[in-house]
Amino acid sequence: MMEKRYKEAFERATDERKQKILEVGIEEFAAKGYENANINVIAKNAGISIGLMYKYFSTKEDLFVTCIEQGMSILSSTIDEIFQSDDKLLVKAEKLIRATCRQSRKNANYIKLYNEITAEHDSKRAMLLAQAIEGASSRKYVKCITDALANGDVRQDMDPRLFAYFLDNLLTTLQFSFVCDYYRNRFMIYTGVDVEEMNEEQIVRQLLKFIESAFTFEK
Amino acid sequence: MMEKRYKEAFERATDERKQKILEVGIEEFAAKGYENANINVIAKNAGISIGLMYKYFSTKEDLFVTCIEQGMSILSSTIDEIFQSDDKLLVKAEKLIRATCRQSRKNANYIKLYNEITAEHDSKRAMLLAQAIEGASSRKYVKCITDALANGDVRQDMDPRLFAYFLDNLLTTLQFSFVCDYYRNRFMIYTGVDVEEMNEEQIVRQLLKFIESAFTFEK
Amino acid sequence: MMEKRYKEAFERATDERKQKILEVGIEEFAAKGYENANINVIAKNAGISIGLMYKYFSTKEDLFVTCIEQGMSILSSTIDEIFQSDDKLLVKAEKLIRATCRQSRKNANYIKLYNEITAEHDSKRAMLLAQAIEGASSRKYVKCITDALANGDVRQDMDPRLFAYFLDNLLTTLQFSFVCDYYRNRFMIYTGVDVEEMNEEQIVRQLLKFIESAFTFEK
Amino acid sequence: MMEKRYKEAFERATDERKQKILEVGIEEFAAKGYENANINVIAKNAGISIGLMYKYFSTKEDLFVTCIEQGMSILSSTIDEIFQSDDKLLVKAEKLIRATCRQSRKNANYIKLYNEITAEHDSKRAMLLAQAIEGASSRKYVKCITDALANGDVRQDMDPRLFAYFLDNLLTTLQFSFVCDYYRNRFMIYTGVDVEEMNEEQIVRQLLKFIESAFTFEK
DNA sequence: GATGAATGAGGTTTCATTCAT
DNA sequence: GATGAATGAAACCTCATTCAT
Fold first, then answer.
1. Contact between residue A64 and residue A6 where contact means Cβ atoms under 8 Å apart
2. Stretch 19-58 of chain A: residues touching chain B, C-beta under 8 Å
3. A86-124 confidence digits (pLDDT tens)
4. Chain B, 73-112: which have a CB under 8 Å from a chain A CB?
């Protein structure tokens, strides 16, 4: 986990207020990006004074990071459930894809926030965030693939960690295609259809096919 | 193609100067992102006055877009060569992967710039850029897959446009993993190794395997 | 009336500060004109930071318009009193002329500001300002002439609205002659005397004659 | 007359070029005002280089003043003709008013330029311009009134110079009402009609009445 | 005479952060 | 704890003017 980036005063605030601040912050950061987000606006929309905002967070960056933490933990909790099941890899994969599509509607802002981070320019912060965000979920991904490898559900000559990486890249970019402006356009340019107009079932099946043969390869 | 975003005075500048400005601009935008990039710094590093900079480009955004165009055209020219060959899909794929790895060293800044764009928040600009950048290359990707489909090199039940999209997503994220801070860290977290320490050959082979079975699927 | 052009924060400021800002602003705009006036200077002279200035007014133009409103409302309040009396038209006229002369010493800057506006080049703003400034006072002028017409104090074949317009033009240019550089010089060139050296009584009497019956009208 | 404000090189230029430069300059200054006019744009529109522009005029101000001279000399030439006639004052007045209306269509830019000057903020320049522009015409006005006084066409107790001043003020503001944004709006607010919609004949007659004998003067 | 590329001071505006109450 | 007025550095952009060719 990440070091906490909020002050003690924030912990003492009511849950309702904490939620409101993060929710509003996430919305602003997701909509405008880190640089263009305005901390004074966030405070106002959250119904607190800017002075209090700075009692809770030392800097804009700290608020941002805390918003990230909140958003990413929600995103990963959905994923975690799937990993906890005993399903075969292919079934898990299908569930992951479907979850990805669903997330995109419910948690659009969290995904936008995640997308924002992937273009991080401050390398120090990039490292910090990557560690915090990808750490746990990558381990689950890798473990899941490793198990599949042991079960013979995957080509034996596949490196499980790279495999996990590639797989997650596909899901991540799919997710972005639902909610992030650039990726959504990109999707349309490739497929000729807006992602929301396309039958979700088709996306799921096609992506499954794309990765499937990789899984169940037999000579 | 995109409408030109530079003024006529820029066309009249010497090639050396044009190159210098774009090079310096790309470096600044790649390093700091659009918002944090500073035109005054770009002008100074390019060895011209700020006034002249504005004789060449009407706005910071125009300079940015022109830098993008330059960077993306270089990136895609490498790719185009590969598509022009008569190789079978799998051979092309291998070449693409290797080109991707090579690009990452030579054209790191262009890739960072591309990464920057993928997190674009201004939806209008996102559309413009996507069209300009992805338009041509997506058509080549899709055509290439469509041909492979006709040749029976790919599963017959695969939608060629989605297939192309997934494939390009894999290559794009791989590219980012070489040069963009966040993705690079992500790569390390998944694989346990820095991307530059890993044997390139292994990455190529593993990614090929990942997509390969999809290609030559037979019951 | 004009829509307000200041932000809420300005309303919350102390009266003293509000006055100071407008006073300093009017002075700067009157002295240098809109383009050459410098907000930083206004802020400094008003004893506030530039940042606070922008908490009070969104743009330089908004500050300008608010200064105008203040200045014009003071100018017209003097005039309004005169219109409220039951005097005959000629008596009112005399009072107006005397008020005009008096204004010129006390409210020189407001008049300069008004003069600045009459050379407005932005036609949209010109319309807005004209409406706001001339609206109320023109109605009073016209009503006053219409009443005089009913009383038989004025030629029956006179259009009251044009009459009011001509009359106000005479007063306005007289006012400018007291405080605006160009008009003051113009006055001197015509009369051979600086307006401040001329006996005010003479100006009043001559102007009264001019409007009363310049030419020897005979039935 | 004014001291010349152009360099010798300008005198040596062809008449066509001289005319073009002044014409274009007047248009730009009339349209945008001194501050917002752009000397580089004027040069471009006049078909010469900015370098040459500075061979002709040392500063923006010099170009402006030279434009003024040109414009004002054209304006006053129309007026001069009228003064040269032997008509009675009232006839001359009518001619002046009609000329004023006509001017407004043909020489709108010159009038706008004149209007611009009347809001001059630099008191030194204001004096210079006033002297140059008003000097000759004021003398003609005054002489004309003095003659009328000798002939008994005007009240004997009227000061001819102030009379001339008031009269010219009426004509000047009328002129502005035809072409200057603010005055035009002001006219509409007073009269309820746009100046171009109003029957010109009515304006002429009403203004004549106004100056002739506004109030029912009785001996 | 003629060009137009080049300069850079200066102005408006934004917003993270502070601090007195 | 809570407020929000206040700060000021820093960024984008304009345009009169210069000068080498």
1. no
2. 31-33, 35-36
3. 888 888 899 999 999 998 989 999 999 999 999 999 888
4. none
